[in-house]
UniProtKB/TrEMBL annotation:
Protein's name according to its UniProt entry: Trehalose 6-phosphate phosphatase
EC number: 3.1.3.12
Presence of keyword Metal-binding: yes
Matching InterPro entries: HAD-like_sf, HAD-SF_hydro_IIB, HAD_sf, OTSB-like, Trehalose_PPase
Organism this protein belongs to: Neorhizobium turbinariae
UniProtKB keywords: Hydrolase, Magnesium, Metal-binding
Length: 245
């Protein structure tokens, strides 16, 4: 990487840093990845943020003991480089809605409901035949949730999340703050939700990269074949930061 002080790096988690797994809980964080990210972040002067659909506390656990700036729930919550967290607040009615969804989902064999606080996901990876049922139900629940929410489609998943946020907004917010400001953004992701980051990055003259084994419909400027390929690049760039003690 030429002159790391010019760049800010924004990384998606699932399918980008970590291989996809059958369920949200069964992902495996490769040994060495958290430390590699920590070293790479140091090389970038701290201008590395994780931008994910996961809830922030879950994302934090994946990379402990290191603490990175993280935007969670597709940008609905965001911890900046000073450790300050901001969140889109949702009303108490959303708890009732999530409980009703979880009850109804018991009739859909193999479908998993992931309660993420201000967002809720219905996963059909273990039951692809349930896709239409799940999508129709989530449209119905979205109507009940109201205009403060939106549907987020992803890989074998449909989510209801706050409408007043996106990964693109989160990336923009980071770029207005130290240590990200005055740097060119690089965003790397693998899914529909990451396209919002790619659009912002493209407008700002940065670099957008989609992880995809096969040609994907994307506005990203380039592609990488897999999460493991990206991890090997991160390892290489991170290693360049190691100095003899
Ligand atoms: O923005 P991301 O960090 O990519 O998060 C997107 C969603 O990732 C998770 O779901 C996806 O990964 C699961 C584990 O590999 C997989 O089982 C599922 O099919 C994928 O859709 C996560 O569970 C969601 O909450 C995130 O929004």
């Amino acid at each position: 990487m030429q002159d790391p002080s010019q760049w800010a790096l924004f990384l998606d988690i699932d399918g980008t840093l970590i291989d996809l797994a059958e369920t949200p809980e069964s992902i495996v964080v490769p040994a060495g990845l958290p430390a590699d990210l920590h070293r790479l972040s140091a090389r970038l002067g701290g201008a590395l943020a994780l931008v994910t659909g996961r809830a922030l506390p879950f994302a934090d656990e994946l990379f402990q003991p290191y603490v990175f700036p993280i935007a969670g729930l597709h940008g609905s919550e965001r911890r900046d480089a000073t450790g300050m967290t901001t969140r889109v607040e949702v009303g108490a009615e959303f708890e009732t809605l999530k409980a009703a969804l979880a009850r109804e989902a018991q009739q859909w064999p193999g479908v998993l409901i992931e309660n993420k606080g201000a967002a809720v996901a219905a996963h059909y990876r273990r039951a692809p035949e349930q896709r239409e049922v799940v999508e129709a139900a989530m449209e119905r629940y979205l109507d009940m949730a109201g205009e403060d929410f939106t549907l987020q489609h992803g890989k074998m998943v449909v989510e209801i999340r706050p409408a007043r946020a996106s990964k693109g907004h989160a990336l923009m917010a980071y770029l207005n703050e130290a240590p990200f400001q005055d740097r060119k953004p690089i965003a790397i992701g693998d899914d529909v939700t990451d396209e919002a980051m790619f659009r912002v990055v493209n407008e700002l003259g940065g670099h957008s990269i989609r992880i995809s084994e096969t040609p994907a419909e994307t506005v990203a400027q380039s592609t990488l074949p897999s999460a493991s390929y990206l991890r090997s690049l991160i390892h290489r760039f991170a290693a360049e930061t190691v100095r003899p003690e």
